[in-house]
Predict the structure.
Amino acid sequence: MRNDGILPKKLTFPSAYTVLFCVAALVALLTWVVDAGVYNKLSYQDNSFIISYADGTTKTMPATQATLDAVGVRADLDKFINGDIYKPVGIPNSFTAVTQNPQGILDFFKAPIKGMYDSIGVVLFVLIIGGFIGIVNHSGAFAAGINRLSHVMSGREQWLIVIVTALIALGGTSFGMAEETIAFYPILIPVFIAAGYDAIVGLAAIYLGSSIGTMCSTVNPFSTIIASNAAGINWTLGLESRLVLLVVGTLVCILYIMRYAKRVKNDPTTSLIYDQKKEIEARFLKNIDHSAPNKKLANKHVIVLALFSITFIVMVYGVSSLGWWFEEMTTLFLISSIVIGLVDRIPEKTFVAEFIQGANDLLGVALIIAIARGVTVLMDGGMISDSILHASASLVEGMDKGVFIIVMMFLFAGVSFFVPSSSGLAVLSMPIMAPLGDVIGIPRENIVNSYQFGMGLMAFITPTGLVLASLAMVNITFDKWIRFVMPLLAILTVLSGLSLLMTIYF
C-alpha cells in the first residue's frame, strides 16, 4: 500500500518524561477513587515526642520508653535520641479516614514543580557532577585513560563486569549507594563500550550492582537499621539470610550480565540497543581514538585522573563514615572541578563554558528526578499512601505462615512503587506491619527482610525510583530495559521467596 503521508509512522516507546507523567496521571486518578486516610505519627523533637493526629492537632509527650510502649511503638528510646529514627513513625492501630482530597489538573501540573523543590539537593548534585565530568573531559585525561585501559584490559574485559558490579553492590549493602551511582555512568559507560560491549552492559553493572546491594542490605543505615529500629529489633537479627542472598544474588547478576555481554561481543547485532549503536558510541567515545598507540599517560593526565579518583574515594568515605549527604557531596565535586581546572590550566572563560555545557548534558536527568518526586507529592496531597498501607496490612491477616511472608514481600514491593524512599517506607510501614508477624507467629526480622527484598525487587523496574534517571544517562528507553532485566528479576524473586521460606521452616 502506498503511504501518502497520511498513515502514521512506526510507533516508538515514549521517553522517560512521558512514562513518568503517565504514572503521575494514574496516581492523580487514584486520589479520586481510593479513600483518603492517615495514621497518627510520632516524631522526636527537642527531648519530647510529638504526636500528630489525623485532624491536624498535635500532642507533646515526654520522651520516655513508657510513652513508646503506651502508643504501641516497639522501639528503643535511644534510637530516637541518637537519630537512628529521624522521620515520623506511624502509630499502630491509629488509621483514621479523612476527607477526600482528590488531586486535580492544577495539582497534577504543579506536582513536578513541587518535586523539584523537594528534590533540589539531588538535582544540584546531578548538575554539578555534569559540570565536573565536562571539565575532566576537556582536560583530555579521561579519553587518554580509557584508551590506555582498553589496551590493558584487552582479552580480560569480563573482569570489568565482575569488579564494577561487586564493588557497587558492596556500596549498596553497606551504606545504600543509590543516587551516588549517577556520577558513575558518564565515567564507566565509555569504558564498557571501548571494551567491545554495548551500553546496557555498563548500565547493568552499575544499576544492578546498586540494586542487589540495597535489596540485600547488611549494615545500610537507610533501610536495614532504620527498618529494624522501627520494628523494635536489633539490626543484626536476620543478617545471615540477607548476607547469603547478597552473595548469591550478586553472583547471579554478574553471570547474567556476562552472558549477555558475551553474546553482544560475539555478535553486536544481538544487542537490544543495536539500532542506537552509532549514536551512543558517538556520544560516549567522541574524544577517544582507538587507533592511537598504546603509550604511557602524560604526567598531567596522571595527576588529573588521580584527582578524579580521589574525589570518588572521598565521596564514598564521607557518605559511609562522616554522615555526608547531597550538600557535602555536591560541594566536593565543585571543589574538585576547580582544582582540576587549575591543574590543567584551563582559562577562566573556557572553564565556565565547559562546566555549564557538562551540567547541561545532565539537565534531562535532573528533570526526570524532579518529575519522579512529583508522583510522591501527588500521593501525599491525596493522602492515600497510608490508605494503601492500611489495606495491605488488612489483606495478610490470618494467613498461613508461608503464604503470609511471600504475600508480605509482594505487598512491600507494591507499596514501594508509591513510596520509593527506603527510609520513608521503613518508618511508615514497620510499626504497622511488624506486629502482624507476632499474630502469625513469625519473628519480626522476617518482616524486615520481606520489606527489604520486596522493596529491592521493585527498585529494578519502578519508574518512580532511579531507573528512569539511570536510563536517561545512556538514552535507553524503558521498554528495552524491561526486556533485558525481567528474566533476571524472575530469578531473584524466586531466590528471595526461597530465602524467606527457609528462615521460617528450617
